[in-house]
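debug: dumping io for the single-chain case to check the tokenizer round-trip. Nothing else runs in this session.
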Amino acid sequence: MLIGNGMLASYFENYLSNNGVLIFASGVSNSSQIDEKEFARERKLLEKNLKDNNGKLFVYFSSCSIEDSELKDTPYHIHKKNMEQVIKNNSNNYLILRLPNVVGNGGSKSTIINFLINKVRNGQKFELWKNATRNIIDVEDVYKIVSHIIENRIFNNTTINIAYGQNNKISDILKSIEKIFDKKALYTLVDKGIDLKIDNEKIKTIMTDLSIAQPTITKILKKYKDQ
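debug: decoded output
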């Protein structure tokens, strides 16, 4: 089964007819969200599907930035943490997969990549966090890794990070965007942000087995720049 219709869900459509697995890809995706109604909507839908699909492998997408000291106390990240606990309390057959910044066809305009691209394209001013980094992952690699985990029944009842080994500086991401679109960004550099280290040790062997190597940020951006 598959719950959701966004960018991430579209890559897991082959699970629509899988009665042993439920992919829950209908959560709040905007990390800047503060509307309690949106959080309540996800919680209600999640609790209903946990109850109605007891026994199925329940796969939930959370966020690596839950561990970010500058972000963990925001409404979005508190909500994600709460949803993880609801799943742990109500299922004995689950996978909680924390994702970094996922890039693919379409996707929310609120993602860091789409935010920067739109600012550059439209010539709009913005603040650039000097110390910030992001782990940018190709959605196709997310699908390959997650499908491997599901099909091989590994990491059940576990919370794991699905991420590449290296982060990208926001400033380097912006430079790549400027080069691809041949347009200079208008920004003010501010002394904010941290380099959040994401532990992807659990999936390193899987990435090797699947011949997944971390692509350059430029390669990912060029792949999806017109989407």
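debug: round-trip ok. Helices lie at 7-10, 36-52, 75-90, 112-122, 139-151, 170-181, 204-209, 217-224.
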